[in-house]
Write a structure and sequence with these properties.
By secondary structure, the protein is α+β, with helices and mostly antiparallel strands. Helices cover about 50% and strands about 10% of the residues. The protein has 41 helices and 17 strands.
Length: about 1050
């Protein structure tokens, strides 16, 4: 307990160090040539600085208010740099920073715990004393220092609003940066260059894109950028100036036409009008554009020749760029033309991989998930056995974070062996950090992340490597940072790793070797991916992190390397060759500039030693290379497919240790005792007989009422109420049967009555919405009704012609042209039945008839529903509050918790029935597993409310919901207990079997990438090696970026391979309808 300099008592120790130093120096470094930027061989970067550095470091060691151990508080630390002179020269260019520029950084808050978790807030301010840095250029071959004044061109690069300011940098515990409260002038105000401007630079989210659009529309800002570009390079300026002016012109046209959202360019007439205005500034090209657009929207593809003729007529520079335009048009044709979708999988009795005998025999000495849960739940009064404790500790890196948490919560620390407990707790802490990083890496917003990762990564890899050495299975190993596996000595450093890669296939292994890394394959994959997408790939820290991970992989069995690459392939490991191919290309180009040449890895040799596969080298596929006529991407894609095929044993292991299975695939499907093969009890038989009797009685009363109502007799209200009461009695009887036999809905009579109820309630819902005139239901119904009436004309025609094909509605269709007198839009515009509906005087039977005609397509189904009294009686559910919660999971494009899908319907359900809706925070184009985790969070919320629940899934939301159910049903006992609250499912337009859009888009994507590669090879001879390398690096960074990888992971859920893996491993509740 010490006295602080303020006089107050503090708990702990607080130290402050003040320092100041003058810095003056000059440095030169050789820069690689880049002719396109006028940087030539021999050019040097020359930096000269003279400045004053001052600051204070404050560190306080104290006890946190909550938690154990100590923490370090760096709050109050401050650093200031005042520049007296700072210039940077490169060839014929020089940048001069104003004298007196001051940059100050102050740590407002930064508390770091013993586990290295913590958040920081730093205030950064700058003041250029009202001046701007100046960029000077002169003729190539001279320098600004030696040139005369009149020979120099100069430009101020900053607008006045950016020459002074202050902002807050908030750093999360995973190294994420978020900017708030920026002050860009001496008085606090908002404007174009507020904190959102700076945040848009580091965090390119949806809000940032809006900010970028706002900046591009700000003429002074763009004008300043063009000034700078012109001074740098005249050719670049011409391109940028043309692009900017074209963008502004397009925006003016869109604004004049009232287009502020992509949906505003529909229909085709509007789209054609915009094309004509963009090309010719008038409507002279409208007719030509409309023919092209209608051909595409009718599914007949892009007319390439018509598009090229249109462009030739309107673009002055067409002939100059004809090859490039032709290539772009062919790309567009591929994207817009129809394509044959791949065949669907048709398979029966497909076993989960963990049950396939070729794999399951490899795991006989590895504890399965079911045994792990049974072991920790048994005999809690006595400690766990040494064998069981050791077995769990051994498999812990391969378990999920949820499993590890459950194990540590389920048993006291004293129940575990000390050594095993220490290992499991350490693995738990690592998995928690990696889990936090898994959704937070890549891009400028995670600039400091690599430094935070290096702290725990170094310890984890070092401990794992020590474990290998201690077991006597490895030779002498250097430290991860110091030891290198160069292309010359890799096989000598890791002889067993190399031999393992050339040993017999996994099919002939007697046991799956887990290895002893503290980081599991999924953990290593995430950290490796975070390094590949880091904006600081050239830094020593990132390169050392990557080398430590590669060292760790190399020290483990061959199966570990395959598992890591499979996990990179896609979250959940179901395998996306496209995702893995992008990551492999980035991995093979790993930056190793911080290492000496003799210590650099040959990544192709390294991967070959792990995989036993020939790894293609990019140089061989470039122009002039050995395989120049072939596609490098195709070659990498084939390798990715082989890796995923080789990883099936690892996928089986994950199913073995992470999923419990109450039944195997060969077990009979649970059936109702009411089926012919069942043996129902007498009470169940009596209940079923009573229910059938009441259904028959209700149908009789209902049919009598319906016949009377249709005959025009106007039956008394008592007759209708009697029929409704009879049906309600039948409902209650069926509910009793279902309570006695949860699988009763499998019985034919029960399923039939259930289906009739479903259709009746759907018609009732639409009827009530039409009567109450909610949302746009009346307008929607009139459109459906009009479409149904027009389509019936074509159905009659097709029957007369003996054809079965469906009519086509687009106006460009030949069949539509034959019926120009009955154009689709003209006929539909005549329909206004529902919009003129009078709730007080309408005929319910007539209205229900129109609803059925509008909603249903099959004529037999229409007749059945029209004659069903259960539908026509419009029997509502009982009034009152319901003890139920809806879990809402929307489609592939959604705002998750902030979404508005079906919001009015959910609001009405709450107002009328007291039913709460919890929106799952699913995301656009994300994987099954990611979205399933968000749905599980919503289920946890419903469980905490003590409410039973059902989920409503739409499109991909159906697959996500089914995945959440499957993962919870095979998860920890806690997860399975929560799932008991699931009572029903509502799947709307389910995409659980994938989507033809996804399958066809995937085929097109493969072709587009190869076509792009061919175009790149064509232009390779026109540009320098530096330019080519820059483009390749940019492509690698894009294809391996966090956003792109997550997007591809989400698209996998729409493809047959992703759905096949999902259904293969799935297990759902058999008694939930």
């Amino acid at each position: 307990r010490v006295k602080a300099w303020g006089g107050a008592d503090v708990q702990g120790v607080k130290v402050r160090v003040d320092a100041g130093v003058d810095v003056e120096g000059r440095a030169k470094s050789r820069v690689a040539e880049f002719p396109e930027l006028d940087i030539f061989e021999g050019d040097e970067m020359d930096a000269e600085v003279k400045s004053e550095l001052s600051g204070s470091a404050c560190v306080e060691l104290k006890v946190p208010e909550k938690g154990e151990g100590y923490c370090l508080d760096f709050g109050g630390s401050r650093a200031c740099c005042t520049l007296e002179k700072y210039t940077v020269g490169l060839g014929h260019r020089r940048l001069i920073v104003p004298s007196g520029t001051a940059i100050i950084a102050t740590i407002v808050e930064s508390v770091v715990g013993m586990d290295l978790d913590g958040v920081s807030m730093c205030e950064l301010s700058w003041d250029l004393q009202g001046a701007s840095p100046v960029l000077q250029t002169t003729d190539v071959g001279t320098t600004p220092e030696s040139a005369d004044h009149e020979e120099k061109k100069s430009v101020e690069i900053l607008l006045k609003a950016l020459r002074q300011g202050r902002l807050n940098l908030n750093v999360s515990q995973v190294g994420g940066v978020h900017i708030t409260s920026a002050q860009t002038t001496r008085s606090l105000k908002t404007g174009l260059f507020d904190w959102k401007f700076f945040n848009a630079i580091v965090s390119p989210d949806a809000e940032a894109l809006n900010k970028v659009a706002e900046l591009l529309d700000h003429r002074p800002t763009v004008g300043k950028i063009l000034e700078v570009v012109r001074v740098l390079n005249e050719e670049m300026y011409k391109i940028a100036d043309y692009a900017v002016k074209s963008m502004w012109r397009a925006k003016d046209i869109l604004n004049a036409e009232g287009v502020s959202d992509p949906k505003h360019v529909i229909p085709g007439e509007k789209m054609s009008r915009l094309v004509s205005l963009l090309l010719s500034n008038d409507l002279s090209q409208f007719d030509s554009s409309l023919k092209i657009v209608q051909r595409v929207t009718s599914g007949e593809g892009l007319d390439v020749q018509a598009v090229k003729d249109l462009l030739r007529h309107n673009l002055d520079s067409y002939e100059e760029h004809a090859p490039e335009i032709d290539r772009v048009v062919r790309w567009a044709a591929l994207m817009l033309n129809p394509i044959e979708p791949p065949a669907n999988y048709v398979e029966t009795n497909v076993k989960p991989l963990s049950e396939v005998e070729a794999y399951s025999r490899l795991f006989r000495n590895i504890l399965p998930a079911r045994s792990i849960y049974a072991g920790v739940g048994r005999d809690k009064q006595v400690p766990l056995s040494v064998k069981f404790s050791s077995g769990v500790s051994r498999v812990a890196p391969y378990l999920s974070l949820k499993q590890i948490k459950f194990l540590l919560e389920e048993r006291k620390e004293t129940d575990w062996q000390v050594k095993d407990l220490r290992r499991i707790k350490y693995i738990s802490s690592i998995k928690k950090k990696v889990h936090d990083i898994s959704e937070s890496y890549g891009g400028l917003s995670f600039l400091p992340q690599s430094f935070l990762v290096s702290v725990f990564l170094g310890e984890a890899t070092r401990t794992s490597l020590k474990a290998r050495t201690g077991n006597g299975r490895r030779g002498s190993l250097l430290s991860p940072a110091g030891r290198v596996a160069s292309k010359n000595d890799f096989h000598a450093a890791f002889p067993e790793a190399f031999l393992a890669s050339h040993s017999a296939d996994d099919d002939h292994e007697e046991e799956y070797e887990l290895g002893d890394s503290l980081l599991g394959p999924s953990d290593v994959a995430i950290l490796l991916q975070a390094g590949l997408t880091s904006p600081l790939k050239g830094s020593t820290v990132v390169q050392l992190n990557q080398r430590m991970l590669l060292d760790l992989i190399a020290s483990q069995p061959r199966s570990f390397a395959v598992a890591v690459l499979a996990e990179i392939g896609t979250p959940g490991g179901h395998g996306s060759a496209r995702v893995l191919a992008g990551a492999l290309m980035a991995l093979l180009e790993t930056n190793q500039e911080s290492f000496a040449d003799k210590h650099k890895l040959d990544m192709c040799v390294l991967l070959e030693s792990w995989l036993g596969l020939a790894i293609p080298r990019r140089d061989h596929y470039m122009a002039g290379g050995r395989w120049a006529r072939q596609s490098y991407y195709d070659a990498i894609f084939r390798v990715a497919n082989n890796i995923l095929e080789d990883a099936r044993s690892y996928m089986a292991l994950k199913g073995h240790v992470q999923r419990t299975r109450e039944h195997v695939e060969t077990d009979p499907v649970p059936e109702s005792a009411l089926l012919e093969s069942g043996s129902p009890s007498q009470p169940l038989m009596d209940a079923a007989a009573k229910a059938n009797e009441l259904i028959t009685e209700a149908d009789g009363l209902g049919s009598a009422w319906l016949s009377a109502a249709r005959s025009g007799e106007r039956p008394p209200p008592e007759q209708k109420e009697a029929a409704a009461r009879a049906y309600r009695a039948a409902f209650d009887a069926c509910a009793k049967v279902l309570e006695m036999d949860p699988h009763a809905f499998q019985a034919t009579w029960f399923k039939s009555f259930w289906t009739r109820n479903y259709d009746a309630l759907m018609v009732l819902s639409v009827y009530e919405n039409a009567i109450d005139d909610v949302d746009n239901v009346r307008k929607w119904l009139d459109k459906l009704k009009g479409g149904a009436e027009v389509i019936s004309i074509y159905k009659d025609e097709q029957e007369n012609l003996g054809k079965k094909e469906h009519p086509s509605t687009p106006p460009a269709s030949p069949r539509r042209e034959r019926h120009s007198a009955l154009s689709f839009s003209k006929e539909m515009s005549k329909c206004d039945y529902f919009q003129s509906l009078d709730p007080a005087s309408h005929d319910p039977l007539e209205t229900v008839g129109h609803i059925i005609e509008s909603l249903f397509y099959d004529e037999d189904e229409k007749r059945t529903l029209t004659s069903d009294p259960l539908v026509q009686l419009l029997i509502p559910n009982p009034e009152g509050a319901y003890d139920f919660t809806i879990i809402s999971a929307m489609g592939v494009i959604t705002d998750g918790k902030r979404g508005t899908e079906m919001e009015h319907a959910y609001a009405r359900v709450k107002a009328k029935r007291g039913v709460e809706t919890i929106r799952a925070d699913t995301a656009t184009m994300r994987s099954f597993e990611y979205n399933a985790a968000k749905i599980e969070e919503a289920i946890e919320e419903a469980t905490e409310m003590g409410k039973p629940f059902g989920y409503v899934g739409y499109s991909q939301g159906c697959a996500n919901s089914l995945t959440a159910e499957s993962l919870m049903n095979s998860g920890t006992p806690k997860q399975r207990e929560m799932l008991k609250g699931l009572k029903c499912r509502q799947l709307l337009f389910s995409a659980a079997n994938g989507s033809l859009h996804g399958s066809c888009s995937d085929k097109k994507a493969q072709k587009l990438i190869v076509m792009g590669e061919e175009a790149f090879k064509y232009h390779q001879g026109y540009f320098s090696r530096a330019f080519i390398s820059t483009v390749l690096s940019s492509l690698n960074e894009f294809m391996d970026s966090a956003a792109f990888q997550k997007f591809l992971g989400g698209s996998q859920s729409l493809l047959p391979d992703g759905c096949r893996a999902f259904w293969r491993e799935a297990q759902h509740m058999s008694d939930v309808p």
